[in-house]
Amino acid sequence: MKTLMRKFNKTPAPPKASKEEKDDFFIKDLFLMATADARELPPTLEHESLAAAGLGLRCDIQFRSNGSPKHVLRVFKRTFPRLHEIDKFYICTKMQGISRQLTMQHYTPPAARLLKRLAGKMIVLVPLKKGIVYDLSEEMVDCDICEEAVPITLWASHIDSCTEKIHRPRKRKTY
Ligand SMILES: [Zn+2]
User: For the chain, percent helix, then strand, then coil, each to nearest 5?
Assistant: First the structure.
């Protein structure tokens, strides 16, 4: 388990910001819904508990501009390991402004260039037919950075905040 976690910690270094390479990536914010066939983003109040369940909002996720649908799916699954619990999901976008309404865009992960073209920065993944159970597992894992025991469902967001405390100033958007 320890070695696995150490491997997990090593996120690939961000691409060098050289001019030519810069255009080869783009970023989107991703949101994974719990409810099947949802038509609206949950209110901001719920986002924290969603994040605690390995769902909800993850910011600044990087995609290769020329990535295949497989690449896009891989990034989705890396961002949300809980996607493995469902067979299919819609790719939606949120309407501009305060409306929480979602617009269905694709039934399967599109190629990156199509994803990039979708309006706005936030992409919402909505389970199709079968939702994701919104409960917290009791299982704990040890964080290699702060050495605290962390619930397994909180792991992904913990790694972010834990490394963020060390490396990055806090920047989080609300939707
Ligand atoms: Zn930690």
Answer: 35, 25, 40
* Structural domain range at position 53: 2-11+23-167
Residue 125 inside a domain? The answer is: yes
Ligand 1 centroid, distance to 5 Cα (angstroms): 11
Please tell me the distance between residue 145's alpha carbon and the centre of ligand 1 in angstroms: 5
Strands 140-142 and 149-151: antiparallel
Residue with tokens 């939707």: 175
Sign of the dihedral defined by the CA atoms of residues 72, 43, 151, 158, in that order: positive
Q: Please check whether residue 94 lies inside any domain of the structure.
A: yes
Give 21 Cα–ligand 1 centroid separation in angstroms.
32
Query: Is residue 174 situated within a structural domain?
Result: no
Q: How far is the CA of 163 from the centre of ligand 1 (A)?
A: 7
CA of 77 to the centre of ligand 1 (A): 22
pTM: 0.66
In a domain, 128, yes or no: yes
Domain count, the chain: 1
Per-residue tens of pLDDT for the chain, all 175 residues: 455 555 555 555 555 555 555 569 999 999 999 999 999 999 887 888 898 889 999 999 999 999 999 999 999 999 999 999 998 999 999 987 888 999 999 999 999 999 999 977 899 999 999 999 876 556 788 888 898 888 776 787 888 888 766 655 555 556 6
